[in-house]
Amino acid sequence: MADGCGCDRHAHMYLSVDEALCRGRSAADPITETETLPLAAAIGRILARDCFSKVNMPAFDNSAMDGYAVRTADLGDAALFQMAVAGRIAAGDSGSHAAPVGSALRIFTGAPVPSDYDAIVMQEDCDVVEGQIRFSRRPKPGQHIRRAGEDLHAGAPILRRGCEIGPREVAALASAGYGEVVVLRKLKVAIFSTGSELRQPGEPLGPGQIYNSNRYMLLALLQKPWIDLTDRGQVEDDPELLKQVLLDATETSDLIITTGGVSVGDEDHMPRLLTEIGGVTDVMKVAMKPGKPIIFGRRGRALYIGLPGNPVSAFVTWQIIGSQMMARRAGLHHTPQAAVQAVLSEPLYRTAGRQEYRPVQIDGYTPDGRPRLRLMEPSYSGRVALLAQADGLAIIPAEVTEYPEGQGLELLQF
Ligand code: AMP
Ligand code: MG
């Protein structure tokens, strides 16, 4: 499989979270088309090529301190060294200087060190008396000089393709001389929410109606510089309408994400509709709580991810599985989610079987700095307001039925 994944394809069994992740990521083939952008325009985008430094970093020997450049060979044996100051070099100066033997040069941080000077004496260690400096400690050859290429040699690797160009990455590219950079084109993502009960916030609610929260959650989750997002709003549970929107979206998108309509009720049309328009689907029943059903599939070049309708389930399945599939489709290299070690501040009792992502609040820290977690409601898959009050999701492995107070566990912190 594309991702080097060895998991089985058991279509109708419950999959472990790891198996589902593996299967989902394997189905998400990375886009490869690129564009070349000026460096500033590439911020937040995904690097398409490995990058190597175009220059030595730093490019020339330069002073790490404000002080005086000296030639250690000029210094005899003395308890107090005294030298004339024969010139001045600031950052941005060329660094070529003819100075008499036995003299020092005033120099500033970042200024080039002339080739025959081999040490910097910090200004804090000098007394200046009538144009002469005096210092008592013998400087070591090379002291306070940053050597050319000491950080990185020209040609040395700086960044790997597939990384997101954040503040640190763009600074590294700039210092390595990249005026423009080759990035992956934006991922074309389309979203829509399914459900005849949905209304937009701000509209009055009729009987049986609820506000569409998934749409806004997805808009927020997908606000990334490497995404070109098309919001197709919400669609009623009408198979013909749904089919049309789905078909249109598959013609123009790399990835389609929907919420709702993926379980086994009569109004849950999505897997069948994707097949009817010539796509293929894979319904993954994942042994996770919340968020059992997640389906994915494809039609032509478009990858489809169908999330559950329950907002908390949609959020968790997106965080754990969907977002990882999207990352791979977009060409990002794999960065597993970082969990932090935490402890429970109260006991936990539950039914075994599914790996649980339980909303928790941090109510303090242990002496060794681990967050102490208070559990939120065990029944929460629709409770999106509760999710907004949580500090993270505690991971409870499938087989666990009971944890005592003080139990160590992993936390995905928001
Ligand atoms: P479904 O997966 O379509 O059966 O939906 C499961 C539950 O989630 C139902 O109670 C829906 O009303 C609710 N739901 C579905 N979509 C949304 C949405 N976009 N915003 C808020 N709740 C939703
Ligand atoms: Mg529905």
Uncertain spans:
1-11
Which hetero ligands occur in this complex? adenosine monophosphate, magnesium ion
Q: What would the CATH topology of the largest domain be?
A: Molybdenum Cofactor Biosythetic Enzyme, Chain A
Structural class designation: alpha/beta
Strand proportion:
25-35%
Mean pLDDT: 93
Strand order in space, largest sheet = 1-19-21-22-18-14-17
- Overall strand count: 29
Radius of gyration: 30 Å
Largest sheet: 7 strands, mixed
Q: Mind telling me the CATH class of the largest domain?
A: Alpha Beta
- The CATH superfamily of the largest domain is identified as MoaB/Mog-like domain
Spatial shape: elongated
Helix proportion of residues, in percent? 10-25%
Number of helical stretches of at least 4 residues? 7
Distance between the termini: 32 Å
Secondary-structure arrangement, i.e. CATH architecture of the largest domain: 3-Layer(aba) Sandwich
Count of spatially separate domains:
4
What does this protein structure show overall?
By secondary structure, the chain is of the alpha/beta class. It is 18% helix and 32% strand. The chain has helices at residues 17-27, 167-175, 214-221, 239-252, 270-276, 311-330, 384-389; strands at residues 14-15, 34-38, 51-52, 62-63, 67-70, 81-89, 103-107, 119-122, 127-129, 132-135, 145-146, 157-159, 180-184, 187-194, 198-199, 210-211, 227-235, 255-259, 280-286, 288-289, 293-299, 302-307, 340-344, 348-349, 355-365, 371-375, 392-396, 402-403, 408-413. The strands form 8 sheets. A 7-stranded mixed sheet has the order 1-19-21-22-18-14-17, sandwiched between helices. Strands 8-5-7-6-10-9 form a 6-stranded mixed sheet, with no helix packed on it. It has a 5-stranded mixed barrel with strand order 23-26-25-27-29. A hairpin with a 5-residue loop joins β25 (355-365) and β26. α1 packs across α6 and α4 (239-252) crosses α5. 37% of the residues are buried. The protein binds adenosine monophosphate and magnesium ion. Adenosine monophosphate is lined by residues 193, 195, 197-198, 210, 212-215, 259-263, 265, 268, 308-311, 382.
